[in-house]
Amino acid sequence: MACLILAALTIPKATASSETTGVLDIGMRRQLFVDKDLIEKSENLDLRMHSPVPREAVFSFDAPWEGKESGYTTVFRDDNELRMYYRGGGETTQEVACLATSNDGVSWIRPKFGLYAFNGSKDNNIVYVGRGTSYWEAHNFTPFKDTNTSTPAEQRYKALGLGRHKTATGETVKALVALISADGIHWTLLQEAPVITKGSFDSQNVAFWDSVRNQYVCYSRHGRNGVRSVQLSTSPDFIHWTEPKWLNFGPGTLEQFYTNAIQPYPLEPSLYLGFPMRFVPARKSIGFPERKVDGLSDSVLISSHDGLDFTRTFREAFIRPGLDVENWGSAHSNNTPACGLLQTSDSDISLYWAEHCNMVPRMRRGTIRTDGFASVHAGDDTGRFLTPPLRFSGRRLLLNVSTSAAGSVRVGIRDAGGLGIPGFDTRDCIEVYGDELNRIVLWNGNPSLERLAINPIRLEFEMKDADLYSFRFAQ
Q1: What are the residue ranges in the chain where pLDDT is below 50?
Q2: Cβ(231)–Cβ(247) under 8 Å?
């Protein structure tokens, strides 16, 4: 559990002349505490990151067409079915793109699609093989279901894969090609020509439809001053893409991001979350007696509200290799998060990462509390924080909160300038305690905030022995 100590600032008494600029328009969107944007002033609080709780090892890449080089996994929900796409083969066999399915995110099966023969049999779950060599589209085939309402049915599923591009000087370089499918099983090229040509692309390159900004987004791999990093391109049609731009990770030394796993958070698509696999190539041994390895890896948490500027609020690892020695080394694979988050229950989100990549690779499932990637935490001493001015819609305030038996949270509402609003002081708030995902806040027994939605407001939180994961306004 990583934590970030918030500056100890006393919340001043409000004056009528307080500034009202810098209003955040949040409507009824979920507000997660993966960064400090919602905290203007605070005392006796810290921000804490919450790593996933390891659950089952759910899938081993042990079929004859899979093996040690399997990986670059992608998961998403397709109506009532969960899908897991991944690369099989690559060391002693041709690289192939495969699809496993599940009803619960725990038990995964390999449907027999009967599309491509392996060792003379089509009884396998291979859905694409590319056009020949082991370094074509199947190498890092990364699909998604396109939710763009104007997309034709035959292009409902899309993917990017590794291709080749001949430059004006005749040099052949790596590029990204676009693929389409009506069902996510039968795939064809959208066009012969590559769609993105500037980059190294030798990793999992992620694309999706951004329903908030109405554009396709691609996060691809490229070298940046000798460091593996991430670049952004956007497109209106999945064919014509903008010139790639480097992501801004804020101050500090660039780290080696082997993959990026950036996606819109399913419950709040205006927020991007990413889980890059962080590569540490300088470390060539572990343990005692010493064991030689090819570098080490873990994963980290990044977030963004605009898709270009990403916050590294927590510099610590999100997923560590752990006690299992087989998760140390094999630096190009171990601890690599799958691209995608799955809501597998009302209270939990499932995510997956690679393990045992020195042997037969497998996917481990982990769970995070809904919205629970980070929290504002108060200990036994009462803590407080004040938000910047917020413009909201709706009538009720809901908290995703956890307290101890003796802990509590109270919420006050001030105007944008900081003046208290009669009837909505923290002393008017009915004490919140317990562990709930959608706790309705009451003031003097009344939850209605409809009359306050006209003008910007500030929320004042008073907390003790509690964690606040998110809040949102609702009807």
Answers
A1: 8-20, 134
A2: yes
Contact 293, 329 (CB under 8 A): yes
Please state the pTM of the whole predicted model: 0.94
Helix (H, G, I), strand (E, B) or coil at 291: strand
Q: Tens digit of pLDDT for each residue in 110-164?
A: 999 999 999 999 999 999 998 765 457 899 999 999 999 999 999 999 999 999 8
Between CA 429 and CA 449 the distance in angstroms is 13
Is 101:113 a contact under the CB 8 Å cutoff?
Answer: no
End-to-end Cα spacing for the chain: 34
Using CA atoms, how far apart are residues 289 and 305, in angstroms rounded to an integer?
46
The torsion of the CA quartet 210, 212, 213, 214, rounded to 10 degrees, works out to 60
Query: Taking the domain 2-49+374-474, which CATH number applies?
Result: 2.60.120.260
Residue 372 in tokens? 């629970």
The dihedral formed by the CA atoms of 99, 101, 105 and 107, expressed in degrees to the nearest 10: -110
Cα distances (angstroms) measured from residue 181 to each of 129, 189, 263: 14, 9, 21
Q: What is the pLDDT of residues 11-39, one digit of tens each?
A: 444 433 344 468 999 999 999 999 999 99
For 73, the 3-state DSSP assignment is strand
Instruction: Report how far residue 199's alpha carbon sits from residue 176's, in angstroms, rounded to the nearest whole number.
Output: 9
Give the C-alpha separation, 396 to 253, whole Å.
43
Sign of the torsion angle spanned by Cα atoms 473, 346, 77, 366: positive
Domain ranges of the chain: 2-49+374-474, 53-369
Q: Are strands 46-49 and 53-60 parallel, antiparallel or unpaired?
A: unpaired
Q: Which residues of 172-204 are buried (b: 16+ CB within 10 A; e: fewer)?
A: eebbbbbbbbeebeebeebeeebbbbbbbbbbb
Task: Give DSSP secondary structure letters for 204-243.
Answer: --EEEEETTTTEEEEEEEEEETTEEEEEEEEESSSSS-PP
> For residue 283, what are the contacts with CB-CB under 8 A and spacing of at least 6?
293, 295, 296
Task: Name the architecture of domain 53-369.
Answer: 5 Propeller (2.115)
Phi-psi category of residue 44: left, alpha or beta, with phi > 0 → left and psi -120 to 50 → alpha: left
